[in-house]
Design goal:
- The radius of gyration is 26 Å and the shape is globular.
- Helix content is 54%, strand content 8%.
- It has a four-stranded parallel beta sheet with strand order 2-1-3-4, with helices on both faces. Strands 6-5-7-8 form a four-stranded parallel beta sheet.
- It has 17 helices and eight strands.
- It has helices spanning 2-7, 46-58, 71-80, 87-107, 111-117, 136-145, 175-201, 205-224, 228-244, 262-266, 275-281, 291-311, 316-347, 361-368, 383-394, 409-425, 441-473, and strands at 38-41, 63-65, 118-122, 152-155, 255-260, 285-287, 399-405, 431-436.
- Bound molecules: iron/sulfur cluster (SF4).
- Iron/sulfur cluster is lined by residues 86, 88, 130-132, 261-262, 379, 405, 408-411.
């Protein structure tokens, strides 16, 4: 038996991988081709893209603003992309393909020619341990699979396509671009907050919507100016006055807080079933997600990371590296908050009751610490937990929705697990977690409707409770004091 075994020859495998697969190669976009190439982009939703377009206009770079994501994008993304991705990837890569095919149809250019003449710019670089951070290559895969070979993409905060002679690049994610991107996002946040306040309470909703459209155009025009740093606060002042003059109903509607994963929370379009608009149309007020808050969270987490890096550094070089990162995060946070405060000061959101307050991230982290360690990074990290505890403690909202793409690792996989504990601590928090997939609107929105119904009941109850002491003051018969009936706590039996 032993002899027989020894005589068996082991066959080598037919295919032996010799090299590591390095992904698609991408040629840089060089200065000599600058005028020949058009940049296609969309950042989360149409308002952010619309404002950002002012930068390209000012720089005289040819561009196509691809606007909002639509459901069809998911189909294109799934058709050419890998399986089991989270839907921000399907939405964004699908939108790229939908627009490339549209260009092909409208211009009659060949796919090869389109690959030379267009370039796609988007976010989604190395954002953390979750999947989207590993996706830069995926855009190239999707484009190549759809027939646009050698198509190029520019991805914010990714190394993709970077070559040593960066001096010759036609486009750089340099400081001016970063500042313009930040400004566009802040302006969009403020206008979304305005929209949530005005659409919910305006006596004439049409009038509010027209004012918002007008404001968008005014901002874009001011942002296109070479003197935008001066023009924007001036125009925001005018807009603030215009919004404050819109007649509004003097009442408080049930208040719904929306949070969740970056894309599912902030897309404000088919990417999250137009959640914000749906909630307002159902007769509630919504506190929308804020990109600024999310950007500050990224800085905050990098700051925590840098402190830890310095503490455990093994040599002076490493200390230097983390100190540099710390400095970068501090200045970025200062710049973001400076612009945010400056624009709030000009707009005066309180005059039309828009909710634009930013939360204290260190405080949120401390609130969540016991349940979600602040140094577990990825996606939104401890944010959703901190927000839920904070709002439950303050009894500040009537409903709390956490929106995330189907199967999102940090948000569904971790946060939602921890939320079970938060809900056990605060059973009165009217919480709903929804997973967006790009389809299935009816079932998701009917779940949201149920939360809204509960929110309305809660809100009515709160108002009733608040009215009772006033009745007592004007001589109403005081309600009988609760009598211990020996049944308390039975529900736990
Ligand atoms: S946070 Fe979730 S949805 Fe967003 S990229 Fe990561 S895994 Fe995907």
């Amino acid at each position: 038996m032993t002899e027989q075994k020894q005589s068996v020859k082991v066959k080598p495998p037919k295919f032996v991988p010799r090299e590591q697969w390095d992904g698609y190669e991408m040629k840089p976009w060089l200065k000599q081709d600058q005028k020949k190439v058009t940049v296609m982009f969309n950042f989360l939703e149409r308002r952010k893209s619309y404002y950002l377009a002012a930068y390209f206009h000012r720089k005289k770079i040819n561009f196509i603003d691809m606007g909002d994501h639509v459901k069809e994008d998911v189909t294109y993304g799934k058709l050419y992309g890998n399986r089991m991705e989270c839907n921000p990837m399907y939405f964004t890569s699908g939108s790229m393909i939908r627009n490339l095919l549209k260009i092909e149809k409208e211009t009659g250019l060949s796919k090869a020619e389109i690959s030379k003449r267009y370039i796609f710019l988007c976010g989604g670089g190395q954002c953390g341990p979750c999947r989207y951070g590993m996706y830069p290559q995926e855009y190239l895969k999707v484009a190549n699979e759809a027939g646009f070979e050698d198509f190029r993409v520019l991805i914010f905060s990714s190394d993709l396509g970077k070559v040593p002679d960066s001096e010759n690049h036609a486009f750089k994610f340099d400081l001016p671009f970063r500042i313009n991107l930040g400004i566009a996002m802040i302006l969009a946040d403020l206008m979304h907050a305005a929209e949530c306040a005005l659409r919910a309470y305006a006596v004439d909703r049409k009038e509010a919507e027209e004012a918002l459209d007008k404001a968008d155009k005014m901002i874009r025009k001011a942002f296109e100016s070479r003197f935008y740093l001066w023009a924007l606060p001036r125009v925001l002042k005018k807009i603030g006055r215009m919004f404050a003059a819109i007649p509004r109903r003097d009442e408080q509607l049930p208040l719904i807080y929306v949070t969740g994963e970056f894309f599912a929370n902030l897309a404000h379009n088919d990417g999250n079933y137009h959640l914000r608009r749906f909630i307002t149309d159902e007769g509630c007020e919504v506190i929308p997600g804020s990109f600024t808050q999310r950007a500050l969270y990224d800085n905050w987490r990098r700051t925590v990371e840098a402190h830890r890096g310095i503490k455990y550094a093994s040599d002076p070089e490493e200390i230097k590296f983390w100190q540099k990162s710390l400095k970068k995060q501090r200045s970025s946070t200062k710049v973001i908050t400076w612009f945010y405060n400056k624009y709030c000061e000009a707009l005066q959101p309180a005059s039309f009751r828009a909710r634009t307050e930013l939360m204290d991230l260190a405080e949120l982290a401390e609130l969540a610490r016991k349940h979600y360690h602040p140094e577990i990074f990825g996606g939104e990290g401890n944010l959703e937990i901190g927000e839920a505890i904070h709002l439950a403690q303050e009894d500040a909202v009537d409903g709390f929705i956490s929106s995330k793409p189907f199967g999102c690792m940090p948000s569904s996989g971790v946060s939602d697990g921890v939320q079970a504990k938060v809900l056990a601590m605060f059973p009165e928090l009217n919480f709903l977690s929804i997973e967006t997939s790009g389809d299935n609107d009816v079932s998701i929105l009917s779940r949201v409707s149920m939360l809204l119904l509960k929110a309305k009941q809660r809100h009515a109850q709160k108002r009733e409770n608040a009215a009772q002491p006033m009745e007592a003051e004007v001589g109403a018969v005081p309600a009988a004091a609760p009598v211990a009936d020996g049944k308390q706590g039975e529900q736990y039996a």
